[in-house]
C-alpha cells in the first residue's frame, strides 16, 4: 500500500476531504480523530489487511505519519 493510499484510507476514517492530509498533522489537532475514529480505523485495518492493531499501539502515535508507519510496519511484519 502506497503512502497516498494509506492517507486516503485515513481520510475516509476521519471523514476528511480526499487529498486534505499530508501526514504531518498532529492527531490531537484533527477534529474527527476521537475514540470512535480509533475503533473505525482498527476495524478498517483488520478488514483490509487481517491485522489487529491495539489501542495501546495507536495511543503512542502522535501524528498521522506515526499512525501510518505503525500500519506499514504491521503489514510488513
Task: Tell me about this structure.
This protein has a single domain, classed as Non-ribosomal Peptide Synthetase Peptidyl Carrier Protein, Chain A, CATH 1.10.1200.10. It is 58% helix and 0% strand. The protein contains four helices and no strands. The protein is mainly alpha-helical.
Could you name the key traits of this structure?
single chain; about 80 residues; mainly alpha; Non-ribosomal Peptide Synthetase Peptidyl Carrier Protein, Chain A; 4 helices; about 0% strand
What's the structural blueprint in terms of helices and strands?
Blueprint: H1 3-14, H2 35-49, H3 55-59, H4 64-76
Helix pairs in contact: 1-2
- What is the domain tally? 1
Q: Output the radius of gyration.
A: 11 Å
CATH topology: Non-ribosomal Peptide Synthetase Peptidyl Carrier Protein, Chain A
Distance between the termini: 14 Å
What is the correct CATH architecture?
Orthogonal Bundle
Shape: globular
How many H/I helices?
A: 4
Largest sheet report = none
CATH superfamily, by name, is ACP-like
Order of helices and strands: HHHH
Percent of residues in beta strands?
Answer: under 5%
> Which structural class matches the secondary elements?
mainly alpha
Please report the first level of CATH classification, the CATH class. Mainly Alpha
Low-confidence spans: pLDDT under 50, at least 5 residues?
none
Q: Say how many strands there are.
A: 0
Estimated helix fraction: 55-70%
Residue-averaged pLDDT, rounded?
Answer: 93
Amino acid at each position: 500500500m502506497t503512502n497516498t493510499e494509506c492517507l486516503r484510507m485515513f481520510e475516509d476514517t476521519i471523514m476528511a476531504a480526499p487529498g486534505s492530509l499530508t501526514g504531518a498533522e498532529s492527531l490531537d489537532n484533527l477534529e474527527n480523530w476521537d475514540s470512535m475514529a480509533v475503533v473505525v480505523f482498527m476495524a478498517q485495518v483488520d478488514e483490509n489487511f487481517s491485522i489487529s492493531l491495539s489501542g495501546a499501539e495507536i495511543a503512542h502515535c502522535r501524528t498521522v505519519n506515526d499512525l501510518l508507519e505503525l500500519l506499514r510496519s504491521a503489514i510488513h511484519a
